[in-house]
Every structure is written in structure tokens, then in C-alpha cells.
Amino acid sequence: MNLLKSSKRRSLLSEIIYNALNIALAVVILIVVIATASPLPAFAVFLLSKWRMLAVRPRYWLANIKANLVDSIVGLGFVVFLYVASGALTVQIVLTTLYIGWLLYVKPKSKRSFVAIQAGTAVFVGVTALMAMTYNWHASGVVLAMWIIGYSAARHVLSSYDEAHRSFFNVLWAFVFAELGWLAYHWTFAYTVPGFGGLKLTQAAIVALALSFLAERVYASYHHHEGVRSGDVILPALLTVSVVVVVMLFFNTLDRGVV
Q: pTM (2 decimals)?
């Protein structure tokens, strides 16, 4: 009985330490961005927090990096958001609170629905941050970054399924995102969000998230029924098409900036 009590105390202590370290990471990144007015030191802080990926034999490095892609995309995107919102402290505090919620509540979950939410978050945050920072990049850099985002999202979702052709689907979806990245580099819009400072909502992020949602629903139907049932995907398809059409045809007349 004493052993069980001791184990519970250690478990509670470990959880408290884990939560405290995650909260400290988010707060430190916020302080670094405010103090330096640059995203680069904050990028370094975040990457240093990932030291455990490389604290193994080199042959495991690639596997660990792949396993941490989604969290890394969200973390790096968080840094970009803080930097873009410079001068709007309230917005930065709200973003930090949301990131703490990601670290403490969303990220640790392993249920399939949460895995899909994690991948969707990486898509939205990653593409939004990418479009905010790459206006003066070469097209190849944007395409490569989009490839990585698409690959990581597909890999993350399919890791919750027993899929024999997972690598093929990962690469296939990565190329879909790469094509979307090439199109977005040449033509996309960003919408001003009232109260969010310099942060803008980009068409590319909305379209990428909508397409990813539809793809996940199609695959889920395929996995469960060994074929895609129209009843499972018709509503997601209608929602996706509606979102894309509305964004592309109607929102282009709103207050916007070309990325």
C-alpha cells in the first residue's frame, strides 16, 4: 500500500513538473520575442526544448524528428504569430494562453479524434505562419515547406490507423500541399482579423485545412468500410466545397492584403 501511495505521489509530482515546464516554455518564448523584437532567438529557445529528439543514438534521430513534426510546426508557428503580433501585448498573451492549452491538453492526447485535431492545428498554424513570413522567399522554399507540412499532417493522422501503404499516402498528400504552396506563392489573399494586430488569416490556410478535413473523412470511411461510402463524405465534401467557393469568390472583396 505504501508503494502504491509513493507511486501516485511520484506520478502527481511528475505531472506538476511537466505542466510547469510547458507553461514556462510558452512564457519564456513570449518574453524572448518581446525583448528581442525578433523571432530568431525564440526559434532557438523552442528548438533547444526539443533536445530529447537527439538524445539517442543517431540512427533514431530521423524517426524522432518525424514523430515531432506536428508539434514542431505548431511551436514554430506560435513564435511567428507572436512576432507578427508585436506591439499588441494582449494578443500575444492570448496566443500564449492558447499555446499552453495546446501543450497541456491537446498535444498529449492519443485518441483518434484528437490526433486529427492535432494534425489540423499543424496545418492551419503552419500554413498561416508560412504565408506570413515567406513573402520574399523563393518559390522553392515555400513549396518545400508546404510539402513538409502536408507530409507531417498525413503521417500524424495515419499513425493512428493500421495502414500498410502509409508511406505512399504521406508522400501523396505532401505533393498535394506542395502544389497548393506553389499556387499560394503566386496568388493568395490575407484577411485582416479585427483585434489581432498584424496577424492575418490567409486563403491558403483555410483551403489547406478544408481539404485536409475532407481527406481525413474520406480515408476514415475507406478504412472502416473498405471503400468510400457516399453517406460518410457527402456532408464533409459539401462543407469543403462551400468554404473554398465562399473564400475564393466572396471574401476577395473584403479588407485584405496580398501575401
A: 0.89
